[in-house]
Amino acid sequence: MALRPPHIVNVKREVDGAIRGYVVARNSQLTVVREFDGFAPAGFVALPSSTVADLTINEAWTRMIASEGHAELATIAPSFATNDMRSALKSIHRLNVNVKIECE
């Protein structure tokens, strides 16, 4: 699936529950999502791409979040190194941002 921001997506997981937010970085090892808790941004979630079962664009939430003035959050995310999980964790540590890290 080609994602072009700003689209809110539902990240269906093979484990745990689904996540709703903007995908800000993704490769074969890592997916980073700017998560939303209701209408408020709730920080970032970094998780192994192998645990992502499906990404689907949620048009209704995309419109609602845009009407709340949060659409720009999809394009102003910090730059995460996503070469592998180790470099991503180092990048997150250096950036000092609120990130929930999920491992397999």
Task: Report on the architecture of this protein.
The structure is a single chain. This protein has one domain. It is an alpha+beta fold and 104 residues long. It is globular and about 35 Å long. A six-stranded mixed β-sheet has the order 5-1-2-3-4-6. It has two helices and six strands, in the order βββββααβ.
Give the helix/strand layout:
Blueprint: E1 9-13, E2 19-26, E3 30-37, E4 40-48, E5 52-57, H1 59-67, H2 85-95, E6 99-101
Parallel strand pairs: 4-6
Antiparallel strand pairs: 1-2, 1-5, 2-3, 3-4
- Strand fraction equals 35-45%
**How would you characterize the largest beta sheet?**
6 strands, mixed
* H/E topology pattern: EEEEEHHE
Helix coverage percent of residues?
10-25%
Briefly say what this structure is.
The chain has 104 residues and is of the alpha+beta class.
Task: Name its key features.
single chain; 6 strands; 104 residues; alpha+beta; 2 helices; 38% strand
